[in-house]
Design a protein that fits this description.
The complex is a heterodimer of chains A (112) and B (114). Chain A is mainly β and 112 residues long. Helix content of chain A is 0%, strand content 54%. Classes of the chains: A mainly beta (112), B mainly beta (114).
Chain lengths: 112, 114
């Protein structure tokens, strides 16, 4: 993996479904992994900043795990709601100050 | 506490012109970063300022420049605009010197170059 990659690119789920997406990144020179939620017509909002291998974070129905050795992070949403519809971005900080390298995002649409 | 404020929200310029975008960070935040988003691309890092000093710069040509003032407000300038500069430009501020604190983004400036 040379860049930060996210999959799937887009996802349609039904209200109440649980879902997850993947962020893959180069495992070398790892300092932190950020997750952001970006709703249409709003600004990206931070969900989690993860730094340690095996780290798990949770915020309400959303949780994330991190594997720095193999270079991936999973974001889980339990019981999706229409208000969860957004683009979810991950970004790696690989040293060099505050520069974040972003993936292109996973666009989630939750339908009634 | 007011969020990150970017002005203007929308801008239309002609090729060859220059443009200045402004960003006011959250009060007390001394780090300001700029990102560019074009269709199909992830957010691309432009530069970061901390206490009026540029700390990092992304892989953009010298036509892209920035500065930060003593009140932490930041401006970004693009000279000799090209069609490819059409993008959403996002500014983000961060609390303190903790590199693991999250970024707080503004709503962005949508620049269209014709």
């Amino acid at each position: 993996i040379l860049n930060v990659e996210q999959s799937p690119q887009s996802l349609h789920v039904q209200e109440g479904d649980s879902t997850n997406f993947t962020c893959s990144f180069p495992s070398s020179n790892f300092y932190a992994l950020h997750w952001y939620r970006w709703e249409t017509a709003k600004s990206p909002e931070a969900l989690f900043v993860m730094t340690l291998n095996g780290d798990e974070k949770k915020k309400g129905r959303i949780s994330a795990t991190l594997n720095t050795k193999e270079g991936y992070s999973y974001l889980y949403i339990k019981g999706s709601q229409p208000e969860d519809s957004a683009t979810y971005l991950c970004a790696k900080r690989g040293g060099g100050g505050n520069k974040l390298t972003f993936g292109t995002g996973t666009q989630l649409k939750v339908e009634l | 506490k007011a969020g990150v404020t970017q002005t203007p929200r929308y801008l239309i310029k002609t090729r060859g012109q220059q443009v200045t975008l402004s960003c006011s960070p959250i009060s007390g935040h001394r780090s300001v970063s700029w990102y560019q988003q074009t269709p199909g691309q992830g957010l691309q890092f432009l530069f970061e300022y901390f206490s009026e000093t540029q700390r990092n710069k992304g892989n953009f040509p010298g036509r892209f420049s920035g500065r930060q003032f003593s009140n932490s407000r930041s401006e970004m300038n693009v000279s000799t605009l090209e069609l490819g500069d059409s993008a959403l430009y996002l500014c983000a501020s961060r609390n303190g010197n903790d590199l693991n604190s999250p970024l707080h983004f503004g709503n962005g400036t949508r620049l269209t170059v014709t």
